[in-house]
Amino acid sequence: MKDTDIKRLLYTHLLCIFSIILSVFIPSLFLENFSILETHLTWLCICSGFVTAVNLVLYLAVKPNTSSKRSSLSHKVTRFLKCCVYFLMSCFSFHVIFVLYGAPLIELALETFLFAVILSTFTTVPCLCLLGPNLKAWLRVFSRNGVSSIWENSLQMTTISSFVGAWLGALPIPLDWERPWQVWPISCTLGATFGYVAGLVISPLWIYWNRKQLTYKNN
Amino acid sequence: MRLGSGTFATCCVAIEVLGIAVFLRGFFPAPVRSSARAEHGAEPPAPEPSAGASSNWTTLPSPLFSKVVIVLIDALRDDFVFGSKGVKFMPYTTYLVEKGASHSFVAEAKPPTVTMPRIKALMTGSLPGFVDVVRNLNSPALLEDSVIRQAKTAGKRIIFYGDETWVKLFPKHFVEYDGTTSFFVSDYTEVDNNVTRHLDKVLKRGDWDMLILHYLGLDHIGHISGPNSPLIGHKLSEMDSVLMKIHTSLQSKERETPLPNLLVLCGDHGMSETGSHGASSMEEVNTPLILISSAFERKPGDIRHPKHVQQTDVAATLAIALGLRIPKDSVGSLLFPVVEGRPIREQLRFLHLNTVQLSKLLQENVPSYEKDPGFEQFKMSERLHGNWIRLYLEEKHSEVLFNLGSKVLRQYLAALKTLSLSLSTQVAQYDMYSMMVGTVVVLEVLTLLLLSVPQALHRKAELEVPLSSPGFSLLFYLVILVLSALHVIVCTSAESSCYFCGLSWLAAGGVMVLASALLCMVVSVLTNMLVGGNASRKNPVHPSSRWSELDLLILLGTAGHVLSLGASSFVEEEHQTWYFLVNTLCLALSQETYRNCFLGDDSEPPCGLRVEQGLDGATAAWQDGPACDALERDKGHRSPSASQVLRGHEKWMVLASPWLILACCRLLRSLNQTGVQWAHRPDLGHWLTSSDHKAELSVLAAISLLVVFVLVQRGCSSVSKAALALGLLGVYCYRAAIGSVRFPWRPDSKDISKGIIEARFVYVFVLGILFTGTKDLLKSQVIAADFQLKTTLMTKFIWKPLRHDAAEITVMHYWFGQAFFYFQGNSNNIATVDISAGFVGLDTYVEIPAVLLTAFGTYAGPVLWASHLVHFLSSETRRCLWTLDTPTLGQSVDRPL
């Protein structure tokens, strides 16, 4: 197990966390009355944009899985388009799942959709960056004993922790505290964000602690 | 001693029920009662106190009013009269409240806010307990002392029109009555016309002393369409005109009689935002109480704001107003404004009578009554009163007398308040000792059950019940001794009455023996396990075990649900928890099916072992048996299903079924909004049942019945198929007959029959299926259809391929059953219990079938799932079990969407 790899992983994750923190503070310089709770939708858009951008940049800069075959430009373009389609599909399927979970069908549709977008940003975008639009690889990574590098391992952890965060975020909604953050979908988006951040922090540490035990098939 | 696991479980359940019964007896307070029965209540009224000089006023004071009319409007909320609705729809009443000769109050009804206990509270002044709710359906005659009884013995003529409950409560007390039944909740005009039609005649006649009118229409409207419906306004205007009629008639009559008349307008309970009642929210508890009489004349500019009083105060006030003895069990205090216009001596006399009655009640119910501040105040004010009487008899009309009199008055009022309060809290006091005993028994049984689960999972398990070893018998006797010592100490030092101390020594001793025996058993099983655990730990045959996500979810979900019940809003919104958990379960299931399908042989730990690891008592010796057993069972249906799964068409069904279930859940969820916070939101159920959408409802009902038929009829013999079809047809006919759906060939039938024949028709078919033992199940209604769909999907595509073990499936079934309970529109609020299900197919109220039907109607969801569980676990002996479901048909039929 290469320590440099883990170090790179840690730095990229720190950058992601930094981008989320920036998305909280930077807009208040340009926008009047910006706050996470009151102008939640704006924050959602900005945060999702930041995280996507950082992920893309990191992917281009670090290239964790250097694919051996060089591909043509057209191939790259179709690949990119495919990624976009996958992203949109994941947004819509998340939206459907939220509605199935009891989110209002007609009213607050924009809020629900933006929640779906941010959750896709935390989960689908890293997957797309790392694995590409390749369902086989996704299934392999998210099944037991299927990971083949620390990058995929950390991907698994951040994704699951974002889902769990969003899931836990729904718990305080029925409480009668009448707080502004209990409004749908704020608690869930905050939960997803915290879950993502927690996943980003925990996964390098966990991999570092268990570096002796971890053995990957292809590495 | 060895016990079969079945016997053991039965014993545990029986003991558990006993423990819960003891606990409930302590939890539900015993009502405050006067021990002297009303029959021999001919003791003379308390004479006026006097210090030294003898007062000649020993009889009851004479009545203040000649005629009393009580207009009771069911579910009249305080803002219907005092709020904006009152101003808009009840102009006459509003005028009376604001400017007329009246006193208005907001009377607070104590929960349960259900009609019968409220009538009792109004007329007896006592606080009926929760036990009375059960008897709300079939109210037996009231044995306690009440204003009505007092009036009857005093020779007053009482006329009653309205809710039948009164006639049942006071069977021989009215000289003339016409009871209307609240059987048909959908009718809100006839019930009230039935009352009003007598009004002109009776008011003209005037040969009565007390007239009671109980209007049910408003309550029915609330149940149908909630407090914000436009129908409410019409009803309130109607009530306003009734009130105006009565008031003008009483005023015109007043010139002939020396005494003024009294008109009382009150509600028995309020109405929640959903239109129901029964709980203790502000809307349900606050009712208006308006006393109108020319005796309450006021000067212009005298603004009287409605004061908050207790509903129990009405009884005492009415008794005083009519010159009657105050009912013995009344905990209410006189509404002082009513007597304010009288001379001060009379005022004092009334207050004295009231305090004497309350202090008597206190003496009988509280052992240490002398220490009660209310009682001390009473003694003091009685002394002051005596002094005042002496002064009064000596010299009349002086400033001193008046000042002293008002001081005594204040003293009395304070005493009344404290007395009334301490009596009311007496009712709300828990019997801690009984509750503790019940809890201890229940906890012991629970530990015993938990400890013996690993043993009991063994199919032919026999449980060792250690009773005879000397160490434990010593422990047993010691514990008995300690417990009886405790019992004696608690019972001799108890301040308030205690049920458990009131039991005979034999019964209390029996419970103590039981408790100590259970304790010994728990201890011995625990030691056995520890010893056995040490032995088996040496033997490291721990099969590689990893908990699947599903196991984790089920464990966390169950634990989380238990924890969430600590927060009151999670209790109110418990349905949200269940929906959330069920959804997550579905997603987890779908994830598992996907994994199984796409990565065929990835994760195949012998799943039969999971449960044993979950409960992991480190008992390797026991494990062999169940594990092998489960494995065998597993193999049984692995071979066919595994090959089945991967066939193309079926594979897609497997993949789609969790999503279908999720979609169904979402649909059902929007069918009924329950809980507290979002209960007022419009839901599909209301939309469907509103009269504009009858066609949609009819189509939906027909489709769902068809779906039921299609899904059920497979594998039935032709006879049972026919019976099933006829039964389902009968269901539809029944609903058409009660007017909730319509026949295609008779679109505008106005006559709403009771639907009794149709319902019986259904019952006959159900019974027929039951008796002939024919093949399969039969159930109905949208929910049932959906349930059917789901269970079919589930069994066919999820449980079979996934090969879960019994414990997991049990938990899943339980979750789904709970979710269905809430899908039906139930909640933890007693008001959501739909009593009308108890009347399907019955002409009149028959207690046992009605209670059974109501219970089935309420718990149809959990019962269906439980029976499906049994069916699933014993697939071989399937046919007899399904017939269990059939009784639920009848009332799930009627359950309004």
From TrEMBL, chain A:
Domain of life per record: Eukaryota
Listed transmembrane segments: 9-29, 41-62, 83-106, 112-133, 154-175, 181-209
Principal subcellular localization: endoplasmic reticulum
Alphabetized InterPro entries for the sequence: GPI_biosynthesis_protein_Pig-F (IPR009580)
Any Gene Ontology CC annotation: endoplasmic reticulum membrane
Compartment annotation: Endoplasmic reticulum membrane
Nuclease as UniProt keyword: no
Keywords from the UniProt entry: Endoplasmic reticulum, GPI-anchor biosynthesis, Membrane, Transmembrane, Transmembrane helix
Topology in membrane: Multi-pass membrane protein
Pathway(s) served: Glycolipid biosynthesis; glycosylphosphatidylinositol-anchor biosynthesis
Biological process according to GO: GPI anchor biosynthetic process
Protein name (record): Phosphatidylinositol glycan anchor biosynthesis class F
Organism name: Papio anubis
Gene that specifies this protein: PIGF
UniProtKB/TrEMBL annotation, chain B:
Localization terms from the record: Endoplasmic reticulum membrane
Residues of the GPI ethanolamine phosphate transferase 2 C-terminal domain: 792-877
A Gene Ontology biological process term: GPI anchor biosynthetic process
Keyword Lipid metabolism applies: no
Pathway recorded for this protein: Glycolipid biosynthesis; glycosylphosphatidylinositol-anchor biosynthesis
Short name of any one Pfam family annotated for the protein: PIGO_PIGG
Keyword hit for Cytoplasm: no
Any one GO MF annotation of this record: CP2 mannose-ethanolamine phosphotransferase activity
Listed GO CC annotations: endoplasmic reticulum membrane
Record keywords: Endoplasmic reticulum, Glycoprotein, GPI-anchor biosynthesis, Membrane, Transferase, Transmembrane, Transmembrane helix
InterPro entries: Alkaline_phosphatase_core_sf, Phosphodiest/P_Trfase, PIG-G_N, PIGG/GPI7, PIGG/GPI7_C
Residues annotated as transmembrane: 432-451, 472-490, 502-531, 695-712, 724-743, 755-773
Membrane-topology descriptor: Multi-pass membrane protein
Assigned protein family: Belongs to the PIGG/PIGN/PIGO family. PIGG subfamily.
Protein name: Phosphatidylinositol glycan anchor biosynthesis class G (EMM blood group)
Source species of the chain: Papio anubis (Olive baboon)
